[in-house]
Write a structure and sequence with these properties.
- The complex is a heterotrimer of chains A (329), B (395) and C (385).
- With 329 residues, chain A is mostly helical.
- Chain A has helices at 2-6, 8-36, 43-61, 69-105, 109-128, 130-136, 144-147, 175-197, 199-209, 211-216, 221-247, 254-269, 274-295, 300-314, and strands at 154-155, 164-168, 171-174, 249-250.
- Helices cover 73% and strands 4% of the residues of chain A.
- In chain A, strands 1-4 form a two-stranded antiparallel sheet.
- In chain B, the strands form two sheets. Chain B has a two-stranded antiparallel sheet.
- Chain C has twelve helices and 14 strands.
- Chain C has helices spanning 2-31, 58-78, 95-107, 120-133, 162-176, 190-203, 221-230, 241-253, 269-275, 295-305, 313-328, 334-343; strands spanning 45-51, 84-90, 111-115, 137-139, 155-157, 182-186, 207-212, 234-238, 259-262, 283-286, 345-347, 352-354, 366-372, 375-382.
- In chain C, the strands form three sheets. Chain C has a seven-stranded mixed β-sheet. In chain C, strands 2-1-3-4-5 form a five-stranded parallel β-sheet, sandwiched between helices.
- The chains are: A mainly alpha (329), B mainly alpha (395), C alpha/beta (385).
- At the A-B interface, helix 4, helix 5, helix 12 and helix 14 of A face helix 7, helix 12 and helix 14 of B.
Chain lengths: 329, 395, 385
């Protein structure tokens, strides 16, 4: 207990950093759930592809740490754009391949879940076999820096060096910590405004509320569904870069565990609720850290899931409730 | 989708003749219909032959069906244990409509009960262990269900997922439960040595009885997997019988009503919570039984045998086969457990291929390989309604 | 009667179709080689690799498979008249799949030796089956000490188990690093937890804190906080390189400069790949001789796989070579090959290989390696008391 109190600030900050990543990934689950009432199981692979896109940008540019600040910012922005583009693209592909036909047929929700699970396996294995695939096309040597050790951790050469900014309660908060927490909140605010104020956002809310009525009012449901997947993918891409800045490596199967956690965060905050996703992420990140500190890291996931069960028992629709459709402009 | 709130499935001919026109699901083939029209004794004889064939599978080692890259008996056991699990999960998911992503938790409790009380902490007899395992799993099903079944729909999915993970992590981090090293020396079923049965050896299209390769009836040894498969198959037939009785009873109807519309069911006087809990307990019972048999075949268990991935594969088996149809989920379990073992020839690519196969199956057989009759009826009604409303059949 | 004729026809057709298909299936069977191997010749002889090639542990398994494959390829290049096959049994590290694969392996008469099983868990289910089939195995990576005491007479282990490596790591920390306070972390795997327990016992009072992480975990902030809070001078981590790389990176990022000590599961280029500069100064204990003494293997591996030998690649290479030398000596059935392995006494790349009665390798010397300028270099031999 005294350990928790002595290191409270550190555990809180690192918990919030982790929570911010959970929250951004959770957005993808929440948006799709809000609109389609489907658990987009393959969203974790959307994130994973984004993380590789960011890594590949730094590999291609070959920037050493400690470069001049404008270069660092430029590289990070490029990596961010690449991650968002790839994640968004994979999310759209997913919608096309795994969901569109089933949505049109009005198939049971469970089938869409299985379809997404199949897509998730295929995408993860695709990444894990990228060296073999390059072999197949005879591109192994050309693509070597991008496909080598396909089953292993791939390192993100962060152009930005981690530096302490200020010290609170015995913990030196680093620039990376600040960037991650602030960007996550900024992205959340931007998304919230997008949903509230834009035409597409209104469409998303309309479809979430009552998809048939929305269609009758002239909302193009298919376009809105695509937009939802795209926005979720873009957020996952941003999460991918932030994750890499903090944790430094990614691998073909890194999405699965993160996806489970992010989905938990989405449910914790109230699935379908955008602000809830970030709140759920923060709560989960903090709970994991505090739980680890109190009874040991081996029980962190147990703490996280028990917390989830307790919260759902007392607030059956999560902390902030399901409200994507109910949000008013 | 409009669901038919019709009477429960019966073998009546009315139900079968309900559908006309194009369907998403399985059309009964000419052969199947002919079989259904056979006189009773012939049907019985055919069924008997089929059952005998199933028992003989590990001995026949038929080319093409048999797995070239791994032991066929072991694969058959794995497939059979998936089938049993799928039957259990079908009650929860197919009949009562509760999405359980932590089913592996029950499987693990069954397996761990046998291992902990049969080897690690006590040396109880196998005959005591199996009922004990089933009892403890059923209790845990009720304990998990009582608080969580009040949570609705997809929230239940994540809560059960958490439950499955908690069980695995507890086993992994508790020294008393063997921790990461797992538990060795799990008791095997008691053996009775009666007689030897030779296997077939295939060379091209001709089969020769291979007297060197025999299975001793009924020795539960280390290497020969056939007796375990026979045990599992027998359990499956027992569970199938019980499943059929449950489905046709008042309980089965109550589950169906709860799944289709919980509020309406409650208004009609169905105590939905009690019935959901019962479904959970039944599912847990079968899951635990399957886990217990798995542990006593394997002789060793560790937490890695109960990963979250397994829960997902179980759900995939039920949905791919056709949630709600017991023969459908059996087929689904066979697809999920058998294909990756059969197509080991793909080597590293086999999981990629498996993922794509799931994707394709879900998209092109959305009602499952063998959809429940109710879904087919509902679809036929849907189509008739559409035809009436629009004057033409929907494309 | 009409019924039976009508149903009989399609059934007959099905039976015929099955028979026709059966022919092609049978051809495959023959192509993969059937019939018992005749003693004295090299025909239809294969050794097997048993372990993960897919799944979460694929990275570790592929390293081992590559070592075996390299040995077999070299052997076949040198001995044109004695070509040995390589069968791969991809268990995905799953004890359940291992059961079927082990049964398959003992049923395939051409397979006379197995390098593996790669992990302790799958060894527990596959071991008794190999013992029953009389199929000699040499594991290049499963280090759970209990495996040797199960009475499987086919079991051999070509590297030191946790009992030999743990004390070495502990004595290095105490005698060479002279650390008074050590924080012990493990990854809750059979390998990592087993090793960490032994190190903890050996260090006794010097242990100022312990924590357990999970394989696959990427965020270690709570563990890093605990390490810093304990003020430990050294951190011992029992586990594999993937988590080790992340842990040390986050430790350095969190301002912990305690010496990072790990064991052979981390001796892998993947560790440096994951940790980057943070890996500098890490001490890796390994019951294996430095690669300078086996430069030939090092170069050949580098040429074949475009990467330095990874965790257990060298051990796998040695294990395969023990079998291959036996086959060249004319031991082309299981019984004689098992005898050959039991009596083996020879120099290999990682150590002098001689197995004791339990199948454990004798005369284990544990070396300490150090990460310097992004390379794993030999530091010194560790004396254990």
């Amino acid at each position: 207990m005294s350990f928790l109190i002595d290191n409270f600030v550190e555990l809180t900050v690192t918990g919030l950093v982790l929570g911010a990543v959970y929250g951004l990934v959770a957005l993808g689950y929440t948006l799709v759930y809000g609109v389609l009432q489907l658990i987009n199981f393959a969203h974790s692979e959307v994130w994973m592809f984004g993380s590789f896109a960011a890594v590949w940008v730094t590999v291609a540019l070959g920037v050493a740490p400690g470069s001049a600040l404008p270069i660092v910012i430029g590289v990070l922005l490029l990596a961010l754009l690449a991650a968002m583009a790839v994640s968004g693209g994979v999310a759209l592909l997913l919608e096309r391949v795994a969901y569109r036909r089933l949505i049109r047929l009005d198939a049971p929700k469970l089938v869409a879940l299985i379809s997404a699970i199949g897509a998730s396996f295929a995408l993860a294995e695709f990444m894990g076999l990228r060296d073999r695939i390059a072999d197949f096309f005879g591109l192994r040597d050309t693509l070597d820096p991008y496909v080598r050790s396909a089953r292993d951790n791939t390192r993100f050469q962060n152009p930005l060096q981690t530096e302490g900014v200020f010290t609170v309660g015995g913990y030196t908060v680093s620039n990376v910590d600040i960037i991650i927490i602030v960007s996550a909140i900024l992205m959340m605010v931007a998304l919230d405004q997008f949903i509230r104020r834009t035409r597409t956002g209104r469409g998303i809310r309309a479809v979430a509320q009552d998809s048939e009525a929305a269609a009758l009012m002239g909302v193009n449901r298919n376009r809105i569904i695509r937009a939802t997947f795209l926005v979720g993918g873009i957020m996952a891409g941003a999460a991918a870069l932030l994750y890499l800045m903090r944790f430094g490596v990614t691998r073909w199967n890194a999405g699965f565990l993160l996806g489970v956690k992010a989905f938990t965060a989405a449910v914790l905050g109230g699935i379908g609720n955008i602000r809830g996703a970030l709140l759920g992420g923060f709560v989960l990140g903090l709970a994991e850290n505090y739980g680890s500190a109190l009874i040991g890291s081996e029980w962190r996931d147990v703490v996280a899931f028990l917390l989830l069960v307790v919260i759902l028992l007392f607030r059956p629709t999560g902390l902030l409730g399901e409200s994507l459709g109910r949000a008013r402009a | 989708m409009t669901q038919g709130k019709a009477s429960p499935d019966t073998e009546s001919a009315v139900a079968r003749s309900g559908g006309r026109g194009p369907r998403l699901g399985w059309d009964r083939g000419a052969l199947a219909q002919r079989v259904a029209g056979l006189p009773r004794p012939v049907k019985l004889a055919l069924t008997g032959l089929f059952v005998l064939f199933l028992y003989a599978l590990p001995l026949l080692e038929i080319p093409l069906i048999s797995t070239p890259d791994t032991d066929f008996g072991a694969v058959l056991f794995t497939v059979a244990s998936y089938v049993l699990v799928a039957l259990g999960l079908n009650i929860v998911l197919g009949y009562a409509g509760l999405l359980d992503l932590g089913y592996v938790g029950f499987y693990a409790i069954g397996a761990y009960t046998v291992a902990v009380f049969g080897s690690l902490q006590a040396q109880l007899s196998w005959w005591v262990l199996i009922p004990l395992a089933v009892f403890l799993t059923t209790i845990s099903g009720v304990l998990l269900g009582a608080p969580t079944l009040r949570v609705r729909g997809d929230y239940l999915a994540i809560v059960t997922l958490g439950f499955g993970e908690i069980i695995r992590l507890t086993a992994l981090n508790t020294e008393w439960l063997g921790a990461a090293r797992g538990i060795t020396g799990v008791p095997r079923p008691p053996s009775v040595e009666l007689f030897d049965i030779p296997h077939l050896q295939w060379s091209g299209a001709t089969a020769v009885v291979d007297l060197d390769d025999t299975t001793t009836f009924l020795v539960f040894g280390v290497a020969d997997q056939a007796p375990y498969y026979w045990l599992m198959l027998t359990v499956i037939f027992l569970v199938l019988g019980a499943d059929r009785m449950l489905r046709l009873s008042r309980i089965g109807r109550a589950w169906e009503a709860t799944r289709e519309d919980e509020d309406a069911a409650e208004l009609m006087g169905v105590p939905t919570f009690k019935f959901k809990l019962l479904a959970f307990a039944c599912g847990a019972f079968i899951g635990g039984l399957s886990g217990a048999l798995f542990a006593s075949r394997q002789g060793f268990i560790n937490p890695e045998s109960f990963l979250l991935l397994l829960s997902i594969l179980f759900v995939a088996a039920v949905v791919v086969g056709g949630a709600g149809n017991r023969y459908g989920v059996i087929l689904g379990a066979i697809v999920v457990a058998y294909l990756p073992e059969r197509f080991r020839g793909f080597e590293e690519w086999r999981l990629l291929v498996f993922g794509l196969a799931l994707l394709i199956l879900a998209n092109y057989r959305p009602q499952g390989l063998i959809p429940p009759r109710r879904a087919r009826r509902a679809q036929a009604v849907d189509e008739q309604l559409d035809a009436l409303e629009e004057g033409t059949a929907r494309a | 009667m009409r019924f039976s004729v009508k149903t009989g026809a399609p059934l007959l057709a099905m039976a015929l179709a099955l028979t026709a298909c059966g022919t092609s299936g049978g051809d495959d069977e023959e192509a993969s080689g059937s019939g018992g191997g005749e003693a004295g010749t090299c025909e239809d002889v294969a050794i097997g690799y048993f372990g993960a090639l897919t799944g979460a542990a694929a990275n570790l398994g592929i390293n081992i498979r590559n070592g075996v494959e390299l040995a077999v390829n070299q052997f076949n290049d040198e001995n044109a008249d004695c070509q040995v096959g390589l069968e791969e049994y991809d268990s995905a590290g799953d004890p359940n799949q291992a059961t079927g694969l082990a049964t398959q392996a003992i049923g395939d008469e051409t397979v006379i030796g197995i390098v593996g099983p790669a992990f302790s868990g799958e060894s527990d289910t596959a071991g008794p089956i190999f013992a029953e089939g009389g199929l000699p195995t040499i594991t290049a990576s499963a280090t759970n000490p209990d495996l040797a005491s199960n009475g499987w007479d086919t079991f051999h282990r070509i590297l030191g188990n946790d009992d030999s490596q743990g004390p070495a790591a502990a004595s290095y920390i105490q005698d060479v690093l002279q650390s008074q306070s050590v924080f012990v972390v493990d990854d809750a795997s059979a390998y990592g937890a087993g090793l960490a327990t032994i190190v903890e016992e050996d260090l006794g009072d010097a242990v100022v804190g312990t924590d357990t992480i999970q394989t696959g975990q990427t965020d270690f902030s709570a563990t890093v906080t605990a390490i810093r809070d304990s003020g430990a001078e050294a951190v011992f981590f029992g586990g594999y390189y993937a988590e080790a790389g992340l842990l040390v990176q986050q430790m350095r990022g969190g301002g912990v400069d305690a010496t990072f000590v790990v064991a052979d599961g981390v001796k892998d280029p993947g560790f440096i790949e994951a940790a980057g500069d943070a890996a500098e100064g890490t001490i890796i204990t390994c019951p294996c001789l430095p690669p300078e003494e086996s430069q030939e293997f090092f170069d050949a591996y580098q040429a074949a796989y475009d990467t330095a030998p990874a965790t257990y690649s060298a051990e796998a290479y040695d294990a395969a070579n023990v079998f291959l030398e036996g086959i060249l000596d004319g031991n082309t059935d299981r019984e004689s090959l098992l005898e050959w392995v039991n009596d083996y006494d020879g120099e290999q790349t990682t150590k002098t290989v001689k197995f004791d009665e339990d199948g454990e390798v004798e005369n284990i010397t544990v070396w300490a390696y150090k990460v310097e300028n992004g390379e794993i270099v030999a530091d010194q031999e560790i004396e254990t008391n």
